[in-house]
Structures are given as C-alpha cells and as structure tokens.
C-alpha cells in the first residue's frame, strides 16, 4: 500500500533550510496497521502530511496504492485526498461542526466527498461506539466522544488509507485505550490500512509493527512476536521484538544508546558465527 524509499523533505523559509526527512524508507502492506514513533522533531508529522497529500515531497520515492506522490499534479492530488485518504488529528476542532449532531457531522463529510449514504453513516457511528449519541450535538459530547466522531468522519469517504497524528494526545488513558481498540476493529471491518503517529510507546505496542523514526530516517522496527515466542517472553512482558533496519544498500543504523554504551565510533569489525552476524568494537587503545 505504501512504498517510500529515500524520501526527502526540505522546508525552505527565507535563507534557512530544514531537512525534515533525509532518505526515509517505509513499506506498509495493504490492510496493515502500524504505529510510527519518534522524538519531537524527528519528522513524524512531515511523513504523515506527505502520505496524506497535504505536503509535497522534495525527492525520493513515495507511492501510495496506484499514486506516485512525487509525480501527481494538483488536480490528481485533490482526487487522491478525496478518495484515498482519511485523516485524524490530535485536535479535531477543524473538521467538527459543534452545533450539528453526530449523524449530521458524518453525513456532511459524505456530502463534501460527493455522496451521502445514511446507512453507512449509521454503521460508522456504531463501529466507533456512539449509536446512543447519534442525535446529540457535538457540544454535548465529551472530548473522547468527539474524537470518536472525528474517526467516523475520517472514514466517510471510504478511504483505503487512514492516517492518524497523535489521535490520543488529548484524552485520558482509558479513552485512548478505547480509541486504539476502535482502530483495530475498523482495520478489520473496513480493511483500511492504518498508520498511527504517537510518541506513546505503550499505545504503539497495541499494533503489529512499530516503526521508529530518528532524525528523519527510519531507524528500527518492533514486530509483534508470534504466539509461541510470546509465551517464552511472557515473563518479560515484552510482546514486540526490536529490529534494526537495513536499507537496500545494506546500510544499518546502530541506535545512539548502543553506540555510546559500547563506545562505537566510526567502524566495527564484522564476522559471521553460527549464522549470526557479529559486530565487534575494535580496540583503539
Ligand atoms: N512548515 C515547516 N517549515 C519549516 N520547518 C518545518 C516545517 N514543518 C516541520 N518543520 C521542521 O521539520 C522537522 C520535523 O518536524 P515534524 O513536525 O515532522 O516532527 P515530529 O516528529 O512530528 O515532531 P512532533 O512530535 O513535535 O510533532 C523539525 O525540525 C521541524 O522544525
């Protein structure tokens, strides 16, 4: 569904240039649900804005489904945003209409997308657990309920890709748990590919794969263990296993913590022992 390779985004303002993404690689399968984590400023929102068609990439490859985001013209970009993606922000006030009901909000989004389907609007509202609030105005709802309405709205155009930027950032722990469960069931019900940006690792662990971004590049991936491996790791409570990413040129990033801990500077010695790749820190003393 998503294939980014060597993706670069440079923001230019006056004479200052900020390289927000510097050769990022990311592949996401159709119907996969992943989380992207990373420190503030690592490039998470930049990536999501590019995938959502809100921002243009500067260089590299960014393909979503049949769309090549580096090649599409403005008209195609509007069609891409309208037909392919759904977007959820931490603060959804910009796409919620407070004095309309939940149902009217979802139907209005459908109208903007071109076709109102009341039965599907009700289905979406049921999926996000708001059937009992369907005729309430948004001003009468809690923050978590408004966020769930925003999720229903984001699906109004039946997107094949759902992008969520810190969707649980302004709700309490219990509500954020509930929202992650809603994403999981929507992923199964609608078959949409879901990419969630968060800096909360405990939420990220609720998905099958977590991609970590550091300095505008993918640095590591955590993949959920299989059932048997999970049993073995039950004692440690760790359900994901961390992998370093190797790009297509064979480049490997060693996390800063490990480099510091092991005193790795500019080279390591490679050897293979029993089908394991060993990295040895040369003795420089
Ligand atoms: N419109 C812009 N103009 C100039 N620089 C920008 C712009 N948007 C982002 N940046 C810069 O690009 C880098 C990546 O920003 P980005 O917002 O993608 O990070 P982030 O990982 O989403 O951070 P946060 O978790 O704080 O939202 C930062 O250095 C940021 O200052």
From TrEMBL:
SUPFAM superfamilies: P-loop containing nucleoside triphosphate hydrolases (SSF52540). Residues 2-240 form the ABC transporter domain. InterPro entries: AAA+_ATPase (IPR003593), ABC_transporter-like_ATP-bd (IPR003439), MacB-like_ATP-bd (IPR017911), P-loop_NTPase (IPR027417). The keyword Flavoprotein does not apply. Keywords: ATP-binding, Nucleotide-binding, Transport. The keyword Nucleotide-binding applies. GO terms for molecular function: ATP binding; ATP hydrolysis activity. CDD domains: ABC_MJ0796_LolCDE_FtsE. It comes from the Bacteria. Belongs to the ABC transporter superfamily. This is ABC transporter ATP-binding protein.
